[in-house]
Amino acid sequence: MPGQQTTLSEVTQGTTDLLHEATEKTAQTVIAHTAKYNDAYSTIDKFMDGFWERLPYICIALIVFSIFYLLSKVFKFFVRKALSDRSYTKQNLVLVLNRVGSSAIIFIGFLIAMVIAIPGFTPGQLMSALGVGSVAIGFAFKDIFQNLLSGILILLGEPFKIGDDIIVSGMEGTVEDIQIRATFLRSPDGRRIVIPNATVYTSAVTVNTAYTRRRCEFIVGIGYEDDIQKAREIILNILDRDTSILSQPGFSVNVSSLADFSINLTVRWWVNTTETTIANSISHVQEHIIDGFAQHDINIPYPIQEVKVHRGASVIPE
């Protein structure tokens, strides 16, 4: 019995030691996790305290930026109002002042708002950061900067303006808008064409509506058996009677080539595009020429091919 009591006491003591050791480890683990959570809570508290401390400055910064944004809108209004009534003012100059000037005002407002909202921030730091990454930014945004600079040069140089009909790199349309990045055209069939300004600036541009007087021409053929002088007189009379055709520069009808099936006459005249279009004028003249040639028995030949089939002699085998 005494031995059993001794064994029971040892087991009890061992169990007590194990429980005590487990309790200490659990307590240490709980204390460690509590310390981590306390650090997280402290960081969050500091962040919230800093946020609430900077909140009035952030609100002031937002108000300042909103004021500068409204100033940019007022600047656009006054520039458009002041320059649109002047006859000598270029249309693209208004676009440059509106877009570049308003962008500069917004950028200045952004810098002031950043100085107010962020403690220790200075515009020099922003410029330094841009300077450090200028090489990477230059490579990444090379096309964007190229289009931006080309757009500004197009707006300042004004080779064409909104409403002009132009041809660029084989694409034709009416200019709808000239933005900093691209030029927007409306094609004759009603589609929108967006051309990067770098392409427009470095390509040859044909401005169809740069001048109000435009030359019209087409080629009509007559038969070799027809009277050339008579055909010329008919065409000249038609051109002379058409009131939409200008008398100066004068119109002309000349033999341009001796083709395989016809004698080709080139008809040229000038019109005022504010009174009629080139397509309508050409169509009108061609209709009258067809009627005039038909009345005076002058043929407008077309290619004729003769196909002759020779029947070969049949061979009877022996």
Describe the structure in your own words:
This protein is an alpha+beta fold. The protein has 3 domains: 26-132, no CATH class; 160-207, SH3 type barrels; 213-295, Alpha-Beta Plaits (2-Layer Sandwich). Helices cover 57% and strands 16% of the residues. The protein contains 8 helices and 8 strands. Helix 1 (2-84) packs antiparallel against helix 2 and helix 7 crosses helix 8 (278-295).
Q: Ranges with pLDDT <50 over ≥5 residues?
A: none
Assembly type of the shown chains?
single chain
Sheet with the most strands: spatial strand order: 4-3-2-1-5
Structural domain count: 3
Strand content: 15-25%
Structural class: alpha+beta
Brief synopsis:
By secondary structure, the chain is an alpha+beta fold. It has helices spanning 2-84, 91-117, 123-132, 134-140, 142-157, 197-202, 228-241, 278-295, and strands at 165-168, 171-178, 182-186, 192-196, 205-207, 213-222, 252-258, 263-272.
Highlighted features:
318 residues; alpha+beta; SH3 type barrels; Alpha-Beta Plaits; 3-stranded antiparallel β-sheet; 8 helices; 8 strands
